[in-house]
């Protein structure tokens, strides 16, 4: 397929940049992808040995586009996302940790990027991990400038399932959410305890493996719905109407969430009126913990000894496949050559396999 006219890739701490000539015309479509906890040395073009990660689509974007070095981010998930969507440093947005203070989200007085694009007549869509306000309706995506959204709340969501609208009051006749109760802290605490137990079990299994026993990790067969990781809400928004993500295979633990968001992105692209501007914000869970992945994808890395590393590599390969599928959908729609791709990540310095040449205090 023909490469996109403009490809822009920005990864925190990239060491080189290529300056591209300015485009003759501004791009009409934007695909904005954020990866979670992706380390400097985790991507394919930075792993040049037996443990090379398969990220051919991202590798191509780097080679054909622009690498922006020294893209620094905040040390936590939520403030980094709010900074991206507001264009402000987290401390200028009053957002310093993953709870967001009293408002639990990007301050309402700030207009987010999608709202500016929406005002200019663009179609705007949000998919994936929101984590920029979940306590009240007015902080959720379709109240902040997105036409539609299919999103989960934030940090504690697993890759294989979510409690869809589980702590929201719904209209008995229509199913619409009439009271948005926000984050279920009691359930989150129970879920976190379960995760800690799971992590202990994995550590014990890894120790046994080092002693010659067997080991296991967070992989699942693609069709294995057992022991689905359940977390917080999966919500669909159209305008100011929020409904549980009912009917989604992910909520039942039968579909990897990255693949669910891929299908949603493909449908949005297929349905788009190409005369209108298009902004897709896709915020992946990958490669945030818990390290969960389809086992078949992890089997692509037989030379990787560490279960945790193998799982992270599988998560990243799943992410790359999504970018490839979105690229193919844009090409089929005739939109690809007028699309700007923005790919970046946030991660604290410990979330990397190869942090050099960054100092250990860099984010």
Plain-language structure description:
The chain has 363 residues and is α/β, with parallel strands linked by helices. It has helices at residues 56-64, 77-86, 113-119, 185-210, 257-271, 295-298, 307-333; strands at 6-9, 29-36, 66-67, 123-129, 148-152, 169-170, 177-179, 219-220, 234-238, 241-244, 278-283, 293-294, 339-346. α5 (257-271) packs parallel to α7. The strands form 3 sheets. A 9-stranded mixed sheet has the order 3-1-13-2-11-4-5-9-10, with helices on both faces. A two-stranded antiparallel ribbon has the order 6-7. It has a two-stranded parallel ribbon with strand order 8-12. The chain contains 7 helices and 13 strands. The chain is globular and about 60 Å long. The protein has one domain: Alkaline Phosphatase, subunit A (3-Layer(aba) Sandwich), CATH 3.40.720.
Q: Regarding quaternary structure, how should these chains be classified? A: single chain
CATH class membership: Alpha Beta
**Main beta sheet: strand number and arrangement?**
9 strands, mixed
The unreliable regions are 1-20, 180-192, 213-217, 221-232, 351-357, 359-363
Gap between N and C termini: 36 Å
Q: What count of structural domains? A: 1
CATH architecture tag: 3-Layer(aba) Sandwich
Radius of gyration: 20 Å
Shape: globular
- Give the amount of beta strand, in percent: 15-25%
Note the run of SSEs as H and E. EEHEHHEEEEHEEEHEEHHE
């Amino acid at each position: 397929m023909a490469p996109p006219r403009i490809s822009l890739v920005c990864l925190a701490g990239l060491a080189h940049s290529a300056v591209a000539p300015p485009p003759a015309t501004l791009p009409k479509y934007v695909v904005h992808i954020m990866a979670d906890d992706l380390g400097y040395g985790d991507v394919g073009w930075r792993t040049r040995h037996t443990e090379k990660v398969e990220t051919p689509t991202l590798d191509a974007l780097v080679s054909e586009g622009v690498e922006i070095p020294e893209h620094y981010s905040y040390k936590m998930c939520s403030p980094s996302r709010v900074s991206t969507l507001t264009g402000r440093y987290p401390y200028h947005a009053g957002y310093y940790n993953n709870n967001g203070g009293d408002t639990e989200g990007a301050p309402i007085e700030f207009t987010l990027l999608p709202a500016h694009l929406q005002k200019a007549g663009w179609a705007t869509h949000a998919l994936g991990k929101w984590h920029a306000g979940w306590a009240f309706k007015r902080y959720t995506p379709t109240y902040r400038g997105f036409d539609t959204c299919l999103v989960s709340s934030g940090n504690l969501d697993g890759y294989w399932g979510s409690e869809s609208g589980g702590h929201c009051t719904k209209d008995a006749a229509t199913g619409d959410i009439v009271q948005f109760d926000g984050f279920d802290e009691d359930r989150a605490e129970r879920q976190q305890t379960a995760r800690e137990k799971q992590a202990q079990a994995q550590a014990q299994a890894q120790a046994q493996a080092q002693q010659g026993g067997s080991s296991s990790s967070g992989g699942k067969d693609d069709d294995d719905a057992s022991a689905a990781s359940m977390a917080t809400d999966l919500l669909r928004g159209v305008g100011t109407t929020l409904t549980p993500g009912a009917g989604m295979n992910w909520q039942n633990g039968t579909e990897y969430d990255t693949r669910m968001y891929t299908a949603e992105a493909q449908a949005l692209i297929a349905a788009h009126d190409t005369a209108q501007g298009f902004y897709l914000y896709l915020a992946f869970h990958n490669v945030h913990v818990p390290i969960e992945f389809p086992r078949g994808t992890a089997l692509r890395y037989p030379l990787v000894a560490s279960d945790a590393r193998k799982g992270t590599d599988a998560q990243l390969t799943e992410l790359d496949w999504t970018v490839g599928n979105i690229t193919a959908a844009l090409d089929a729609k005739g939109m690809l050559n007028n699309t700007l791709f923005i790919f970046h990540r946030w991660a604290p310095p410990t979330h990397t396999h190869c942090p050099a040449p960054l100092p250990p205090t860099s984010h």
